[in-house]
């Protein structure tokens, strides 16, 4: 009996131990970690951004070792890894101060040389007729004196009726005068010589008056080219009825063009030493890789137009791209010089307030934005007059890309 009670007590203790183990085991596992090898995983790992610490502590060297993308630092500068610099093809130059010519920037328009161009206009109302060949077309080269078309006069029915009546009256008078002259010549021995000469002059005058009226009614007017060149305007078609002074053709010489500009400052003929023009200016102020026009300063007017003084330039050399009426941006360099640093236009970028900025490469992977004052030197370059120091390394390509880094 005592043996059975002892056995039951042992079983009860065993059951209690098993239940205790089953309850405590998950709790122990939750607060412990298994280890393999010599590593200890009993502590929760902590992930810390070294780049973030570098930003807080200003340690750019640490940031450059761990970052893989350009980032804007708290001081406003940019951290750009070398890999990214190569991908963006960033290029820099050393700022060198020098004397550069002062440049004035003008807006101009291409015009035809008045000595190498001309217009063909209708002298009276009429109908256009072909010259036996096709009418001249745009771009066709013509020679001086070449017949381009014919103009047949047209008039109202009333005017035509009056002209026809005048012609009939002149015809009758001419017939009488000719018969009178024949009778006088038959009686030449009996009549004074002066009487016969008067009859002859009267018949000749009536004959000329009749020819003039016939020309106004039937004869066509030849439209000829006043100069040699290329047809730039063609407003004539066969059968077209035009009014007097209407321009039918315009002829220019593409190798003899001029440029007219307006200047708000006085420019003397000896002040301009070099002038160039371009017509492809982007919104960021840079010029495309298009041919530039080399200009020769001719002179300026003495009468203001639109509160400005008109200036005239001549296009130097043969022109292959500019057209009459095209607007240009002109850069005229004066004899006066100013000191500054010459940079490509691509080195500039603008803030929201239109302030001109450049990137200064202060460290291997750090760029600082610098506000500058600039003046245009030519279509491809500007002169920084203030904001830079000689010897600083300036970014000249990819400035607008870095400005987008947040």
TrEMBL record:
Name of the protein in its database record: HlyD family efflux transporter periplasmic adaptor subunit
Coiled coil ranges: none
InterPro entries cross-referenced by the UniProt entry: MdtA-like_C (IPR058627), MFP_Cation_Efflux (IPR051909)
Keyword Signal: yes
Keyword Transport attached: yes
PANTHER family, A to Z: CATION EFFLUX SYSTEM PROTEIN CUSB, SLR6042 PROTEIN
GO biological process entries: copper ion export; plasma membrane copper ion transport
GO CC aspect terms: cell envelope
């Amino acid at each position: 009996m005592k043996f059975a009670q002892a056995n039951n007590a042992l079983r009860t203790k065993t059951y209690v131990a098993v239940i205790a183990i089953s309850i405590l085991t998950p709790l122990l596992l939750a607060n412990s970690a298994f280890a393999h090898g010599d590593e200890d995983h009993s502590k929760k790992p902590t992930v810390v951004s070294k780049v973030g610490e570098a930003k807080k502590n200003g340690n750019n060297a640490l940031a450059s070792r761990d970052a893989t993308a350009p980032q804007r630092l708290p001081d406003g500068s940019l951290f750009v890894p070398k890999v990214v610099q190569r991908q963006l093809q960033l290029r820099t130059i050393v700022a060198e101060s020098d004397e550069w010519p002062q440049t004035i920037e003008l807006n101009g328009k291409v015009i035809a040389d008045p000595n190498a161009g001309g217009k063909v206009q209708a002298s009276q109302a009429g109908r256009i007729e072909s010259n036996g060949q096709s009418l001249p077309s745009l771009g066709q080269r013509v020679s001086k004196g070449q017949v381009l078309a014919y103009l047949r006069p047209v008039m109202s029915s009333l005017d035509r009726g009056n002209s026809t009546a005048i012609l009939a009256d002149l015809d009758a008078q001419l017939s009488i005068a000719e018969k009178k002259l024949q009778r006088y010549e038959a009686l030449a021995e009996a009549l004074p010589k002066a009487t016969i000469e008067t009859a002859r002059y009267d018949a000749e005058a009536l004959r000329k008056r009749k020819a003039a009226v016939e020309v106004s009614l039937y004869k066509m007017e030849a439209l000829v080219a006043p100069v040699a060149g290329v047809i730039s305007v063609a407003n004539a078609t066969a059968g077209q009825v035009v009014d007097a002074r209407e321009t039918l053709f315009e002829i220019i010489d593409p190798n003899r063009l001029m440029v007219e500009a307006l200047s708000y400052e006085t420019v003397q003929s000896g002040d301009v030493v070099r002038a160039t023009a371009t017509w492809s200016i982007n919104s960021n102020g840079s010029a495309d890789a298009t041919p530039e026009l080399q200009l020769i300063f001719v002179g300026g007017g003495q009468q203001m137009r639109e509160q400005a003084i008109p200036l005239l330039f001549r296009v130097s050399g043969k022109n292959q791209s500019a057209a009459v009426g095209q607007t240009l941006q002109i850069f005229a360099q004066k004899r006066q010089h100013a000191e500054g640093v010459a940079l490509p236009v691509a080195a500039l970028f603008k803030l929201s307030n239109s302030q001109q900025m450049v990137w200064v490469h202060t460290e291997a992977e750090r760029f600082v934005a610098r506000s500058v004052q600039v003046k245009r030197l030519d279509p491809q370059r500007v002169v920084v007059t203030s904001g830079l120091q000689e010897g600083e390394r300036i970014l000249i390509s990819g400035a607008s890309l870095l400005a987008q880094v947040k």
